[in-house]
Each structure stands twice: as structure tokens, then as C-alpha cells.
Amino acid sequence: MKTTKIKLVAVLLVVMAIGFSFTALNKITVKGSDTMVILSQKWAEVYMQKHPGTTIQVTGGGSGVGIAALINGSTDIANSSRPMKSSEVEKLKARYSTLGVEIPCAKDGLSVYLNKANGVSELTIKQIGQIFAGKITNWKEVGGIDANIRLYGRESSSGTFAFFKDNVVKTDYSPSCQTLPGTAAIVNAVKKDKLGIGYGGAAYAEGVKDCKVKKDDKSPGIAPTAETIKNKTYPITRYLYMYLKSRPTGETKAFIDWILSAEGQKIITSVGYFPVK
């Protein structure tokens, strides 16, 4: 009788171990870009409906936070709205002897948000850069009213912060720029502030107006729309990325393959971003 109980306990332990192993194998963690949170959550939601044995956990925090989590081994996939920095690649290589895998998964237009009551409706890239660098400080300098410009931007761990700095500001941000934890917070701030200006993903522009962006003084102002972002006539466009330590396998590979399929790419449009294919 005692032997039978021991065998039964052993069998139960094996079954539990298999169960825990199965759960671990079918759990995917995704962390990083706040710009990509809504999109990734939608991907996860639809995929889990079709694959009930798989759990996908999606969290934000910023591109830098996601890449740091990838390096320290606490996430399977790092979402990023900017390419990995060489210093980050070196850390990944030092820890795992791999350069990582970069997967462009969507396109995005980076909007410049204005309050709807603002008389300014278009700016050149140079003007936008000078505004966020603190070189242009009054709306009258760009055709608006005589009032100080109030700046809203992302925190330094954000990929959007880095991309906008590198491609638009091209120097340090003005110390007067108020940093906020997420694009939705920037939109909300500009919506309430007639003198405010901010930046972020085009999909978030609700309750504010998109500034038309001009490449230079002689170019027309272009609004971020599905067509202008897709054909790259809108001047501030970028890819959104997923990063992994190495080539995906198992359920992670299946999830990524599905994201890049026609079905997964179709979801991108419904959320307000644009397919890579």
C-alpha cells in the first residue's frame, strides 16, 4: 500500500512537471516601446484567441527598458521604436555571444501634436527642431500669437525620444521640455494646453491636430496619413521593431511568423499603424 502511494505521488509529480514545462514553453513575454503597446496587445489578444494554450504578456516602459530586459534575460521579445544602439548590441554579445535578431514589424509616422485652437497648422522640420531645442520660444516666430511655446516630450528611455532627437531636433532638447511617461500623456497635455506642442505616434493623435510638416521652406506641408506614411512623402516616418537574443523557435517563432503574415499585418492598419509588406 505504501509503495502504491509513493508511485502515485511520483506520477503526480511527473505530470505536474510536464504541466509546468508546457506552461513555460507556451508563455511569451513582450516588453518595451510604449508606442507599440496598443498594437502588441492587439496582436497578443487575437493570437491567444486562436491559440488558447499560449499566454502572451505585453508590457511597456519604453524601448530602452525593453532592450535592457532582453539583455538581462527577463523578456523574450523587446519592442523598440528605434534601432538598437551599438552599445546595446555589445552588451547582448558579451552576455549571449550573439548580435541579436532585428525584425521590422510595422511602419509609423511620428506626429507633431498641436492644440486645436492653435492658429499654426504647419511647420518645417527645421522649425520643429529649433522649437524643441529651445531656439524658437514664441509662437509669433512661426506665424502664431505672441505667447511662449510650451513643450511636451518623452522620457529618455523612450525610443520615440531618441528617434525624434536624432532625426528632427539634432541636438539636445530644451531644458524647458516637460517629459511625460507615455505618448497618451503627451496628447492629453497638448489637448489641454493652447500653447502646447508635443510629438508621438500618429495612432495616438486624438483630440489634438496633426501639424503638417514641410521638408523645407519651399515644400508643401504634409499631414501624417495612411497614404503619406506608406509612400514616405510624410517627412517623419520610421520602422517599429521586435528584437530577440537569437533566431526564434517554438511558440515564439509561430507568434512572430503570424505577426508577419497577411493576417497579422492586417491588424496593424486597424490600430492606426502601417504594414511593412
TrEMBL record:
Residue ranges of every copy of the PBP domain listed in the record: 24-263
Keyword entries, A-Z: Phosphate transport, Signal, Transport
Family annotation (InterPro entries): PBP_domain (IPR024370), Phos-bd (IPR011862), Phosphate_ABC_transporter (IPR050811)
Q: Does the keyword Ribonucleoprotein apply?
A: no
Q: Does the keyword ATP-binding apply?
A: no
* Pfam families according to UniProt: PBP_like_2 (PF12849)
Which family is it part of? Belongs to the PstS family.
Which PANTHER family did the record assign?
Answer: PERIPLASMIC PHOSPHATE BINDING COMPONENT OF PHOSPHATE ABC TRANSPORTER, PHOSPHATE-BINDING PROTEIN PSTS
| Protein name as it appears in the record | Phosphate-binding protein
Phylogenetic lineage: Bacteria, Pseudomonadati, Bacteroidota, Flavobacteriia, Flavobacteriales
